Structures are given as C-alpha cells and as structure tokens.
Amino acid sequence: MTSAGEAYHLLNKAIYHYENENFEMAITLLDEALLLNPDIPEVHFWRGKVATHDLNQESLEVAIVHLSEAIRLKPTYAEAYFERGKVYIQKGEFEEAKKDLEEAVKIDPKIKEAYSLLAQIELMHGNDQKAMEYLNKISGQEGDDRYYYSLGKIFYNAGKYQQAIEQFNKVIEKNKYFVDAYVYKAHSLAHLGLYEDAIENLKKAVILVPEEIEYFLDMAKYHFELAKKQLNEGKKIQAAENFIKGLQIDYNLKIEPKYIPVLIEAAEELIEKKNFKEANDIIDQLELLVKEPEYQEYKEQFEKLKKKFMKVLPLKDKVIKFITDIYTK
C-alpha cells in the first residue's frame, strides 16, 4: 500500500472514531496519517474538525492551521471554509467568519447551515434586514436550530413575540441544549405578560449555564412583575410569595414601599390559616426590609405581626425559629 493509500486508510478509521466521539483516538490516527502524507486536504480538514471539540484557545488555533492548510491544498473546499468560519465564530472573530461562510456558500450553495450562521452574525450587528435575506435563501426548506433561532430573534426585535416564541420552540425541539432559545423565549413570554412561563424557561437556562448571573436577575425581576400582576387580580398571598421569591434571588432588587403592607397583610392571612412556614418566609424577609431607612415607617406594624406570629406558633416550631434566628443574626 502506498503512503497516500495508507494515509486514507487511517483517515477512514479516524472518521469512524470521530463519529463515535472517541476524539483522542481520531487525533492519534490523523496525526499518523499526516506523518505518512502531509499533502492530503481531507486529512487536514478532519484534523481541524476534531480539534474544534476542545474549545480552549490552543485547540482552536490548531483547528485554524489545519483547516487553512486544507483550503491551500484544495481552494474549492467548501466544507473547510465552513468549518473554519465556525471556528472564527468561537474565537469571536466575526468578520473573518463572515468571509469564510460567504465563500463556503459561494462554492456550495447547499450548505444551508452557513446561511443560518451568517444570519446570526448580522443579528449581532443589528442588521435584521440582512439577516432575513440570508434566511430567505433557505426558506421553504427544513431549517436547523440556528435558522429558527435567527428567525426568532428577528421576530423578537420586531416586537412580534408570539411568532418569536413559535420559532424558539422549534429551536428547542431540535436542540434542547440551545440556552439562548430558552432565554429569548422567556423574554418573549414576559413581554406578553406570561411571567410564570418566562420564569420556568429561565430556570431551564440556569440548569444549562448556572454561572450566568443575568438569568437569575431576570428571574427575580419577573417574580416581581408576576407579583404585581397577581395583586391586580386580588391574589394577595400569591403576590407576596412572588415578591419574596424575587428578593431571595436578588436582594438588591428594590421593592416599592407601598407593597410592604401587602406583605404584612399576606403574612397575617397565612397565620390565620395556620400556614406557618409560608408566613415565616414572609416575616423573615420583612425583618430584613424594615431595617432599611425607606421602610422604617412599617417597623412598628411589623413588630406587632411578629409578636402575633410567635404567640400562635406551635412550641416545636417556636424553638426551631428561635435557634434559627440566633444563628442568622
């Protein structure tokens, strides 16, 4: 077998391991193939493609080197332009990405995912019209998750929130790990006043990316908006509970002083119903609030509420609260 033939044999084995997510073995085989014959564009293409699965900066640079070599060896290699464009997006080099993706579809207009990525780049720069032009090139076809996400963002930016939600649902159906689809679906739902559904979608985003503080802040804000909506509907206890949930997520969120009596009245109702745990949650939060200058006028009212609560609280719960208060103060 010639060196080229053996290199292609190793390439086929590497592709098999890549498809079975054994990336380390794929890299080993591709490196062996390159030692045998460094002039096969497909080997460089796959070496670059495999490198993209490790998202550190060094691996992305390795991917760029090999994909660039694949293009040098085969200037009409549309897939290599496409893959290199994706790497540039991961590196945040969007102008370079745009050049490669445009070249990819120029060579092979059937690479529909490239149009979706081009639309995303245009959306990032606020060019909704240009993004729509790219998406129109694959309209009438079954789109990928990025296609529906880009379309959803266009509807969202235009204030057409119901249509945006429909597109984000399609994204999630195709890719349940597409975190931004949950986030923008949540914001779309909130614009329609559907705060409970918005909160649920943000919870899903938090599960996927728990380190993103912004999701928690938005969730807290929507708990407040839900509370105001429930208060207008006469649901005082539910409103109070959502104010408390919002504050527990983001204590820096400021509750308007006019809502403090709502919390006090809700706690009193819960005490009457012997829902001591829920009442205690509100009372604990009120105790923190009335220490702040803007809520001082409600301090006396709160102290009366707390005395009433401690008086009716069962002995076991009273002891637990007493001990808890000692260690949390």
Specify the helix fraction band.
Answer: over 70%
Total strands: 0
From N to C, what is the helix and strand string? Answer: HHHHHHHHHHHHHHHHHH
- What's the story with the biggest beta sheet? none
In whole angstroms, how far apart are the ends? 79 Å
Which band does the percent of strand residues land in?
under 5%
Mean pLDDT across every amino acid position:
89
Task: Report the total helices.
Answer: 18
Alpha-beta content class: mainly alpha
Task: Round the Cα radius of gyration to an integer and report it.
Answer: 28 Å
The coarse overall form would be: elongated
Low-confidence stretches: none
Pfam family, one: TPR_2
TPR repeats: 78-111, 145-178, 179-212
Protein name: Putative TPR domain protein
Keywords: Repeat, TPR repeat
What's this model, at a glance?
This protein has 329 residues and is mainly α. Helices cover 77% and strands 0% of the residues.
Tell me about this structure.
- It holds the Pfam family TPR_2.
- TPR repeats lie at residues 78-111, 145-178, 179-212.
- It comes from Sulfurihydrogenibium azorense (strain DSM 15241 / OCM 825 / Az-Fu1).
- Keywords: Repeat, TPR repeat.
- By secondary structure, the chain is mostly helical.
- The protein has a domain at 228-236 and 243-329.
- It has helices at residues 3-19, 23-36, 41-51, 57-73, 78-91, 94-107, 112-124, 128-136, 145-157, 161-174, 179-191, 195-208, 213-232, 236-249, 260-272, 276-289, 299-312, 315-328.
- The longest helix has 20 residues, at 213-232.
- The model has no long low-confidence stretch (mean pLDDT 89).
